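@channel anyone free to eyeball this complex?
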Amino acid sequence: MLNIPGYYEYCCRVNVVAGHDALEKIPGILAGVNASRPMIVTDPGVAGAGLIDLVTSALGNQVQIGGVDAEVPPDSSLEAVRRIAAAYRQNDCDALIAVGGGSVLDTAKGVNIMVSEETGDLMAFSGAGALKHRLKPLIAIPTTAGTGSETTLVAVIKDHERHQKMLFTSYFLLPDAAILDSRMTLTLPPAITAATAMDALTHAMEAYTCLAKNPLSDASAISAIELIARHLMPVMKQPDDRDGRLALALAATLAGMAFSNAMVGMVHTIGHAIGAVCGVPHGTCMAILLPYGLEYNLHRNGHLTSELLLPLEGADVYARTPQEKRALRVIVRVRELNQSLNDITHGRHARFLGEIIDRDGNPAVPKDRLPDIVATAKNDGSLLYNPEELDDEDYRMVLEHAWDGTPLDRNRVKKG
Amino acid sequence: MELHYRDVSPGRSYPQRAYLSINLWFMGRAIQAASRVDDRVRREIRGLPPEFTFALGILPDGPYLVVRKQGKDSARYIGRRIDAQPVDLALSFKHLEAGFLTFTFRENTSVATARDRLVVDGEVGYACSVVRILDIVQIYLLPKPIARMAVKRYPHWPLGDKLINRSRIYWRTLIGY
Amino acid sequence: MRVPNSMEFECPVKIHCGDRALNHIPFELRAIGSAKPLVIGDEAATRENRMAAVLNACRDADMTMGVVEDVPLADMTDSLLQLAAIYRDKDCDAIVAVGQETFMDLAKALNLLLSTGADTLAPLADGQTVPRTLNPLAVIPAASADGFEASGYLHFEGHTLRSVHLMPQLLFLDPRATGRPDDEAMVATALNALTNGVEAYFGVDTNPIKAIYARPATLLATEALCVLAGRGTRAADLAMTVTHAAALGGCALGGDRLSTTHCLAQAIAATGKASEAQAKGVLLSYVLEQRVLEGAMNVDVLLSLAGGNDRFARTPEHQRGPAAIYFIRSLINQLFETSDGKIGRTLQDIGLTRSALAAIAKSACADDTHENPEVFETILTHAWEGRPFGCMT
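replying in thread with the prediction:
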């Protein structure tokens, strides 16, 4: 239903091009912005999976590729930005195509600032609103269906020499177009498909239930939830389901639009911290923590969570479940989804923190690291948008339950 | 028919500016006072880098409150001008009216943030610390019913703690010590 | 929601909606690189104090603004060329437009002219390509708007251009700037919004991203119409609700082809017998019904938007579409009563003769090879008689 805040802003200027043949539309899009010599930016994983070949063959003879840099590191670095900017200039490129996840896109955004502002000093443009002009055309091609970073106006670049993290925020950083093509995610391994879809589901559910929601982010969130609910398990069972893959990719973009306008809450606050402290993949943290976030905030936003039952389970379950039990049913359903994903991936999709293992088979989140996670979580900005406050004790309580995989004791949630 | 052009030069809303200036001044000095009285505030300041300077105020040209970390865990109010020194973190309302809504307790900080009225320029992690400091200071300064509207969750502090510290903070704020 | 095999959607509009939205204008203009905007308004904007509200809200923001008030709409070309000369002469770098529909067309035309650097009306000629990068344009619509101000449509002196690039970059919806419309004007705005919302959400070329705008447009428009039809209590900000609905409907429409209801309503309005909004009110449910029967549309979800999630979920699946159409139709019937017959239930109510229908169907199809005049005539006939197609049974 309609929840209209006293004031809201909404913007998603990205041109979304989706389909089974979306890559083939890139030459037309480039021509529309008078560009003909794009530089392709990607990482070794994406290139190794043969996805760049797919892109280049779709571009065909109509576009001359100015260069390809497939060496973007897992966390965007100033060094990579400088290297790619130099290659861009040397090869007379006039547009950027970023193929990959968040760090590839962040790197491409950094390059775009350097080559558009004709500067060697990226730092001069950091912060909010330092960019005043349109940048060169940037096309984003996501290769997982989760992060939604193709819809964000932020870029984070790390300066490893100075141990600094530079943050850039501007509408000029939004990609001109996001290309969602089912071929890009068709070969995604099951565990990653599961984790990234749960990441997108978390974006949508937090955007709908946290403080900065608005009628447009709500509409994006609802569509995203409905698409994930309908297509995730079929795709897990049949990975070459092209329609399902496209639906999940679109769901991730919709969820990205929802959260880049409505922001996210405590699931991200804690999830970011676990990622930073223990190096656990983001989607894994999201999948585990999502039910806890919904549970913790229940006394504040249960009426909103209950509305999610309709897109999540459909009309029949919604009608059969009494109003006061709908929110709880949503939480149970998310846990069931995690269980089904755990079953179908033969245990690779973790259901609780204690169950996550690293590459060497050791526990990735040792219980004695929980205090470090609390300390890191406290300084994550997403908490500002969470309906209920969390202090050190609250973080510990949530983390302990999430570590064991037991539901929260709702009596222990302080209600202020 | 000939069209008539005119320039509209910017004006000043003096009563609102005066109200905000006084509030920001008081708040700035209260942060300084609280950093000498309350352990929670001290803990937050301890986590900030040496000489860390932060500002809270109104775009595009103030007023602001500017506070700098001093020593290990205390803070000093250093003025109302943001351009007088470099700042590490600025929390700015996008316009005068947005600041006015918050300082008249019609939109608390988290609502103002949720409604996109506040801009954070600087490291977000430090901004979280600063928001917590502001919350604690507001709980001390404001009567409970108003403070409840200003913060997300009103804490259960020991009564003696609150009463004694509150009067100490008020005193120190007024005399600037 | 169905995912099409191939889709493309873009909405360059940044929406600012609600309390003190106008105060955000200077900040937003600065964020897109503007230092000196030209604020332009029509006579109604001055008369209804909307211009004053905008200037007041921007007063204490350290930004000098150029202002031209009371722009006459009698000679659009003259006003356009004068404004272009002023903009250039005074070194302005963005347009802020406060006014009604026709005036918003003037603002878009002005922006196109200035952005292409033209001294003549050449960029406005039919069939011209609109460049992707126009100058910043901010619009502040009133409650009497039809939503086209937010869309990619530009009507100017008999010419029509459409492109997403013509959409304004910034849109400000503020209760202080909606004006004080009467119920009749609000019903018209809401009917325009409802048509844009519903046809964007359920049309053949819909997609989940278009639905982001179409869904709340439909929700807001039905909410407002229910109140105007005497259901439920009247909130203070009804004018804001309809303005909001209309703007989102315009965003959903973008630069897309006009939908069936729209084309038919335009053709009816061209006869001078009724307004576009009146025609849309009558036609919408009949068009939906015909499309559902034909199998070209599924409007089940409309029941959840118009009647709520609970009602939607309780209704058996095969009854949802018919129930949604019935909902819209009974709403219009109620509006007939509350508006003393100004909102018609049938085309006969709004003054059309049966003999005029064939010509209307033909002219509605004139620009569009996709549509069949016979189908249009059938829809018009049912709407004239007030006779459902029978999907209710």
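from a first look: Strands of chain B lie at 5-8, 53-58, 64-70, 74-79, 89-93, 118-121.
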